[in-house]
């Protein structure tokens, strides 16, 4: 099969969609399929298997670019004549891909990577409308975002299937009338993230002489990730446990807001975006606890990697992170509630560490593999093409 993916969710720094598509390229190559990604980027950007369409950087996060040359994108996609044309973002990439006619591709599909309507718009609208409409604010917000859901439905109607990584996203899309939604769970790299990679030396390196616990957090520095909850919850936790350290993996447009909120704490290690996947795996396996604040994850790759590493997790009770939370080694808290987040962390830290790690190791074995994801996905491609 010849597989072509088109997306705007492709950061020069890295990120969940880029990781997904990189793993897809490797999976396709192992199975003898041809794979190509079309994405906007800087004029001179170059990556194997990626065709960059030059476009301006976005103001909020300059590591992402605008796919504004719709005509050029369509000409390039037509020239490839893919067996499967897959849309990985609902913006201009979708408009470009929907411009192709039947016969210029085999099957067209859509992957729902970002719950952009509720994440970026609906919650803010509801808060602003509360003063005007009081008890009717949710209904008023629903009416205002309905044209966006109509846009999502148009994309899905033009595709043979819409793929989601979590059950809650499948339910949400179906409630909004989106057609042919299929739950094919995303997954983590097999063999890389595992409890056996725990290193006491790495743990002590990050503690730097402090007594612990070593608290980890991972994610893009962006407003929807709710780093305010993570930072404020850790600050209260550290008051109760003076030897604690917070180690953070992440980067993004809100890095300055994040650092300003931290202040001049000497018990926080901001480690940036970790490109060494093996070092990340060792660190996740060596921590005592993961704090997570984002209630909008469509899957939550970082949370999945932490669970696969045998790391106990504290997650909000919404989104893909909640869906993944294993009962043996996770505690959920009401999304956005800092005090509840602290209480959840304390509940896990109160368990004997050896017992908690044993529980987490059991949960780690249930995390889905990216191999399983692409086996199922490519199988569905074959079925769609056979029609």
TrEMBL record:
Organism the protein comes from: Nannocystis pusilla
EC number per UniProt: 2.4.-.-
Catalytic class of the enzyme: transferase
GO molecular function: glycosyltransferase activity
Domain Glycosyltransferase subfamily 4-like N-terminal positions: 15-191
Protein name: Glycosyltransferase
Superkingdom to which the source organism belongs: Bacteria
PANTHER family: SULFOQUINOVOSYL TRANSFERASE SQD2 (PTHR45947:SF3)
Keywords: Glycosyltransferase, Transferase
Boundaries of every Glycosyl transferase family domain copy: 201-366
């Amino acid at each position: 099969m010849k597989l072509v993916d088109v997306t705007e969710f492709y950061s020069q720094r890295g990120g969940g969609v880029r990781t997904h598509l990189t793993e897809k390229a490797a999976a396709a190559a192992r199975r003898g399929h041809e794979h190509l990604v079309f994405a906007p980027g800087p004029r001179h950007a170059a990556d194997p298997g990626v065709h960059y369409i030059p476009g301006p950087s976005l103001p909020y996060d300059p590591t992402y670019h605008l796919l504004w040359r719709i005509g050029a994108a369509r000409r390039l996609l037509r020239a490839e004549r893919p067996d499967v044309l897959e849309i990985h973002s609902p913006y201009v990439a979708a408009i470009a891909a929907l411009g192709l006619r039947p016969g210029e591709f085999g099957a067209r599909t859509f992957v729902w990577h970002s719950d952009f309507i509720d994440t970026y718009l609906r919650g803010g609208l509801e808060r602003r409308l509360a003063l005007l409409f009081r008890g009717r604010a949710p209904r008023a917000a629903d009416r205002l975002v309905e044209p966006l859901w109509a846009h999502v439905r148009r994309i899905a109607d033009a595709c043979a299937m819409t793929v989601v990584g979590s059950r809650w996203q499948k339910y949400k899309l179906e409630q909004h009338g989106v057609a042919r939604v299929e739950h094919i769970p995303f997954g983590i790299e097999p063999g890389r993230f595992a409890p056996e990679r725990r290193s006491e030396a790495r743990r002590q390196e990050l503690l730097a002489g402090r007594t612990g616990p070593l608290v980890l957090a991972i994610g893009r520095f962006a407003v929807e990730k709710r780093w305010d909850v993570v930072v404020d919850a850790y600050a209260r936790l550290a008051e109760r446990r003076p030897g604690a350290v917070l180690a953070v993996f992440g980067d993004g447009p809100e890095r300055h807001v994040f650092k300003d909120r931290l202040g001049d704490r000497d018990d926080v290690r901001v480690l940036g975006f970790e490109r060494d996947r093996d070092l990340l795996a060792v660190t996740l396996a060596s921590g005592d606890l993961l704090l997570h604040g984002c209630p909008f994850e469509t899957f939550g790759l970082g949370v999945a990697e932490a669970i696969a590493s045998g790391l106990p997790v504290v997650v909000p009770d919404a989104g893909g992170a909640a869906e993944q939370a294993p009962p043996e080694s996770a505690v959920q808290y009401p999304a956005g509630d800092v005090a509840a987040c602290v209480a959840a962390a304390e509940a896990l830290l109160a368990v004997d560490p050896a017992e908690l790690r044993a529980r987490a190791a059991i949960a780690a074995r249930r995390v889905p593999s990216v191999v399983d994801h692409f086996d199922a996905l490519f199988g569905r491609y074959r079925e769609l093409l056979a029609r």
